[in-house]
Amino acid sequence: MPWVKWKKCLASKQEGGLGIGSILGLNIGLLFKWIWRFLNNPSDLWAQVIRYIYGLDRGIHTASSRSLKRTTWGSIIRSITTFKQKGINLISYCSRKIGNGASTRFWVDIWCGVQPLKVLFPRIFLLDLNKNCYVSDRIRSPDWSMFLRHNPRSGVEASQFTTLMSFIEGVGQIYRL
After folding, report:
1. pTM here?
2. What is the pLDDT of residues 61-102, one digit of tens each?
3. Closest CA to 58 of 105, 19, 7
4. What span, in angstroms and rounded, lies between the C-alpha atoms of 38 and 24?
5. Helix, strand or coil, per DSSP, at residue 1
6. Cβ neighbour number for residue 23 with a 10 Å cutoff
7. What three-state secondary structure class fits 88?
8. Record's superkingdom (predicted)?
9. How many angstroms separate the Cα of 168 from the Cα of each of 83, 148, 157, 164?
10. Residue 14 gets which letter from DSSP?
């Protein structure tokens, strides 16, 4: 039997290889697919079971390390964390379908754009009394004074607040929330 270098096996057929592809890349893709499904289908039974078993009610990174030890879901979470440490934030490529907004957190979840709103509007996020509120709570409310520690002051706070209110008005019209 003739021996073939592994690099040759991984090379595409156009490059004279066998076109096997990277097993590591395939594995990472499959792991990420489970994360994506977990984030985008929170009402699926399997996602509810995972959330209950590992205590993921407040997000994917909220489970205790003890509950994740030597489990399949734990290795999926660890792989995401490993990539983040290497500068690749796979979670930033996920966004949620907000539906009626009752299960999507306004500040923390990535539901519009590529970053959570707490990153886009950090000063307003700091003013908010309930940082784990839901999209439906915030978009339906015309008066934000009851949600904030104090009204936005001039400068950066006022600018961010004005931009956020314009953003919310647009989202409310699109989704009819």
Report:
1. 0.53
2. 655 556 667 778 878 878 878 888 888 877 777 666 677 778
3. 105
4. 21
5. coil
6. 9
7. coil
8. Eukaryota
9. 32, 16, 16, 6
10. G
